[in-house]
Amino acid sequence: MKCANDIDARDVEEMFINIDPIQAGGRLTPEALKAVIAYADGYSVCDHCRKPFRLDYIKKPPIAEFHEDCARWLNMDVLRVVPGARRGFQAVASTLVQKGDPVILTSLSHYTEFVSVEQSGGVPHEIPLDENNHVTAENTAETIEKVVRESGRSPSLLFVEHADYQYGNIHDVCGIAKVAHQYDIPVLLNGAYTVGIMPVDGKALGVDFVVGSGHKSMAAPAPSGVLATTDEYADKVFRTTQAEGDVTKRTFGIKEVEMMGCTLMGVTLVGLMASFPAVKERVKNWDTELEHSNIITDALLSVEGTKIESDCPREHTLTRVNTIESFNKVAETHKKRGYFLSKDLKKRGIVGVIPGSTMVWKYNTFGLTDKQTEHVADSFRGIAEDNGLTIS
Ligand SMILES: *Cc1c(COP(=O)(O)O)cnc(C)c1O
């Protein structure tokens, strides 16, 4: 079936249980699905834009109110919507990082964090991981000391992932931020994998910026996200334009430089806003999400030879699993080679595992019901059994 021209209709979420690592938290709520149809046209949220002509002032639909509610929900002072977490990183790095400045990232930082540093001319320095694949306060202190010693300059920004994209491990943001602040380094929390799926309290974590991804974790269309900060940094990152036309002498009011004036002007913002009540509710069910996550790791661990490379028990729904000694052994002789696993899963109605991968791979159980969780767990055990692996 086509939805237009040669574009296939997409029915993945209707037809399958999708455990794709990056898609689980970005599925739209029914409310968002309805709202995006109503606001599908271009600059749809601009119907009632009045002086001073800025997105975050619009009252109808209640965009101004959303900005306040969402800031409060994250326990931060000021919030803006951005086209993806990466644009949040970009706004902060572009404001705080000067050419040649050292910037602290971690050995689990996402490429978009690196790119934002590169754009602003900063020099990235990674905090090494400990033996459990964690970013620690101790290694943060050592890295800062080393960078200051070797470059003779103080880092202008530190990025830390709340949950990283490789293991889905939760890192000691509190401890790391405390260390960074001893050196007067502002801290950006990368909440791409946490804001919208688990509780996040910016003040409790002690960070200066909270960045979230709408399409990764807030049940919103792409590209969307949020950038929240404190009163201390709001004036800097959300500074207004000083530009003036030399011929016309035009000035541009209160448009914010890093936001390019306005950011999400239609379907993305309305989707984000429409899902927000459900998102606020769902983070309260994080314990259930973790139970589901652990039911699946238990099932995988019962397949002899399988290792969970993420923290166990799981503290997140994104998990990295090593099946070199289990499913990959099957792949060596199977006529479908490594594709047997994704094919067998699909037969059981499950998608989201990269076709062909049987060595080290990731999945995300976020949003599964109890019944779906049992089905995924049974399926991993069943596929293992069907292919002669030992179940304990
Ligand atoms: C997905 C992801 C990003 C990028 O998020 P966008 O909203 O797509 O820009 C950044 N950091 C981490 C850790 C991620 O997992």
Protein architecture, described:
By secondary structure, the protein is of the alpha/beta class. It has 2 domains: 2-24 and 285-386, Aspartate Aminotransferase, domain 1, CATH 3.90.1150; 43-265, Aspartate Aminotransferase, domain 2 (3-Layer(aba) Sandwich). 38% of the residues lie in helices and 14% in strands. Bound molecules: pyridoxal-5'-phosphate. Pyridoxal-5'-phosphate binds next to helix 4 and helix 9.
Give a brief outline of the structure.
The chain is an alpha/beta fold. The protein has helices spanning 12-15, 30-38, 63-73, 85-96, 111-119, 137-151, 173-182, 202-205, 214-217, 231-237, 267-282, 286-301, 327-333, 339-347, 370-386, and strands spanning 2-4, 7-8, 17-18, 78-82, 102-106, 123-127, 158-161, 187-190, 209-213, 225-229, 307-308, 318-322, 350-351, 360-364. The protein has 15 helices and 14 strands.
